[in-house]
Design goal:
Two copies of one chain form a homodimer. By secondary structure, chain A is α/β, with parallel strands linked by helices. Chain A has nine helices and six strands. In chain A, strands 3-2-1-4-5-6 form a six-stranded parallel beta sheet, with helices on both faces.
Chain lengths: 227, 227
């Protein structure tokens, strides 16, 4: 499905990897765990995702912060690494102090005049609100939409439907932008227009759906929309 | 929850990694792709799993054979590997000729006298039936139960409920055995008694449920049940 730009009235952005750069977590992991950090980071991230999917399938909701901590403990155990409570807390609190990618502020400022803007994320509201406040994004965002509202995680249809509800716009008037290929697939299958923010070389999922558009970052996406 | 062995009247086994050894697929991957085989195998397996979860969450069912082929194409693209159609077909057809682990036949034969036995798997019936026939397991299995019957994959509650329905036994009289930690978690959350078949060193998922029992293989499980 090609982009139908003139229909778009609102844009919902995924949070982690799309707006917020989790590099500072990797940096802290390296400081604490040295040459084991990469392996821990990979396992942590993988389990974090898997637990959102598995818990939704099992019907056993747990909020994103707690589930992320469970995933960290899994990663530590799987890599035979010990960490004390203070280190775990410090790692988890990094989620409150994530920087946005360099082009995000400017792109949101440009888009703000034309579109209603939102975050649509798996994270719980308090996590999102603190990361938004930390980066001073409040003034540009109309809504912060969280999976916690339906107690199910992406990519269930209900979460993309929340964007329609919270932004007060039907699917055809909404663009969803994410760097996560499976998230793009879920939103596309639901019926939103979608932009894949391909920040690094990666491969689109083979789930029989394609994003309307691919952009290297949000500046490039803003260029496409505001021409 | 501790094992309540005297209540058990039926046992449902997961298929791949629990009864059937997929090592022959890895062997064929090595023959075709040499030193890139390990990377392809890891990506293929990961995507195969992810696509069962994602498609179920998205409400976009596709059968296990086709979804597995999609995952193979993803793995080839992600590793920058080219393969012709004949090679893809050969790899996929390996699923029809998987050997059971060495102790499986004897363990099933021992359990058969006391318990109703079934396979409970994500795979489509034709895949399972051919792998069962290839290993001559037909005589020991009462039921072959497939996710295809509900068009949703593990670990949704509905799939573990199928074991009750097809074996005609309530959850408390059923043991589910799997080597896959997330599958064990799903069945435990549903309310089945569960055995984790820990064929290699691995770590239990942190999903707030624990299997009733852990066994190194099916022989050890049979020993526990038949004492």
């Amino acid at each position: 499905m090609a982009l139908n730009a003139e229909k778009i009235k609102g844009i919902a952005f995924d949070a982690y990897g799309t707006l917020f750069d989790i590099a500072s977590i990797d940096f802290l992991l390296e400081q604490i765990f040295d040459d084991r950090a990469r392996q821990i980071a990979a396992q942590w991230r993988r389990k974090q995702l898997e637990y959102t999917w598995l818990r939704t399938l099992m019907g056993q909701y747990k909020d994103f912060y707690e589930l992320t901590r469970d995933a960290l403990y899994y990663a530590l155990e799987a890599t035979n690494t010990s960490a004390d409570e203070a280190q775990v807390r410090e790692l988890m609190q990094q989620y409150y102090h994530l920087d946005v990618y360099p082009e995000v502020r400017n792109a949101l400022a440009r888009l703000r005049g034309t579109y209603r803007l939102a975050i649509l994320s798996n994270a719980n509201p308090s996590l999102l609100e603190r990361a938004v406040a930390y980066n001073g994004l409040d003034e540009w965002l109309d809504e912060i939409i969280s999976a916690d509202q339906i107690r199910q995680y992406k990519p269930v249809p209900g979460i993309y439907q929340l964007a329609e509800k919270e932004l007060g716009l039907p699917a055809e008037n909404l663009l969803f932008a994410s760097s996560n290929t499976w998230d793009v697939a879920g939103a596309t299958a639901y019926g939103l227009q979608t932009a894949w923010v391909q920040r690094r070389r990666s491969v689109m999922e083979r789930l029989d759906v394609k994003p309307a558009v691919t952009a290297a970052n949000l500046e490039e996406l803003a260029d496409m929309l505001l021409t």
